[in-house]
Specification:
Distance between the termini: 109 Å
GO molecular function: rRNA binding
Strand order of the largest sheet: 2-3-1-4-5
Pfam families: Ribosomal_L10
Subcellular location: Plastid, Chloroplast
Shape: globular
CATH superfamily of the domain at 58-184: Ribosomal protein L10, N-terminal RNA-binding domain
Number of helices: 9
Keywords: Chloroplast, Plastid, Ribonucleoprotein, Ribosomal protein, RNA-binding, rRNA-binding, Transit peptide
CATH architecture of the domain at 58-184: 2-Layer Sandwich
Oligomer: single chain
Structural class: alpha+beta
Protein name: Large ribosomal subunit protein uL10c
């Protein structure tokens, strides 16, 4: 360690007090020194393992949410989400009926939830950015119509990327078939009218496409149950 020699210009030696102050000003205590810009304040981040665990938990929660929405779901459709503003997305949610749920989730997580189920035919939609429409009602046209009206009002180019209904995949160009499905009231009228009419009308109803016939029979059975079997 290099020593420092102190010299005093006058022949009179300094007092003990002066000498003490001089030594204190020369030998600064490093423990009392203020931090400089060379030592910035550190902001500690959670360890990588913790961040990975949080991310994994959020993904699992998303998959569980999708699975819950699939319960009693009659139609699951993808809507091209790219270009939507937050405001538009909120407005769309407000115009949808209570029987529907609109969720934004990654394709990989949605597919993980539907893999191995009757909804797996939705796989062709698993590209790009999608919002997912879960319809918990048999009134399919009534669930789709609000989006069509919103799409026209806002002049959006966003369209359906596809849908699955009763295990069958519908491409965007096939949505007209879903939008033209008969309402419950129309099903009742058709079925009851054929039962009260001549035998030819009943035969015509029975010869209708199997999908329409199933809808008719389901509606008729439910109507009977509501009326106590009358």
């Amino acid at each position: 360690m290099e020593a420092t020699l102190f010299t005093f210009p006058s022949s009179k030696p300094p007092s003990s007090q002066t000498l003490t102050l001089t030594l204190k000003s020369h030998f600064k205590n490093p423990l009392l020194a203020r931090p400089t810009s060379h030592f910035p304040t550190l902001h500690h981040k959670p360890p990588t393992s913790i961040r990975a665990a949080i991310s994994r938990t959020k993904k699992e929660e998303t998959v569980d949410t999708v699975k819950q929405q699939l319960q009693d779901c009659h139609l699951l459709a993808g809507i091209k989400y790219k270009g939507f503003t937050v405001k538009q997305f909120q407005e769309l949610r407000q115009v949808l009926p209570d029987s529907t749920k609109l969720i934004v989730a990654k394709n990989t997580l949605v597919f993980k939830a539907i893999e191995g189920t009757k909804w797996e035919p939705l796989k062709p939609c698993m590209k790009g950015m999608n919002a997912w429409l879960f319809v918990h009602s048999e009134e399919i046209p009534a669930a789709i119509k609000p989006f069509r009206s919103f799409q026209k009002e806002k002049k959006l180019e966003n369209d359906f990327s596809g849908a699955v209904f009763e295990g069958k995949f519908y491409a965007p160009e096939e949505f007209k078939a879903l939008e033209s499905l008969p309402t419950r009231a129309e099903i009742y009228a058709t079925l009851l009218g054929s039962l009260k009419g001549p035998a030819t009308a009943v035969v015509a109803t029975l010869q209708a496409p199997a999908r329409d016939l199933v809808l008719l029979l389901k509606a008729y059975v439910k109507k009977l149950e509501e009326n106590g079997g009358q």
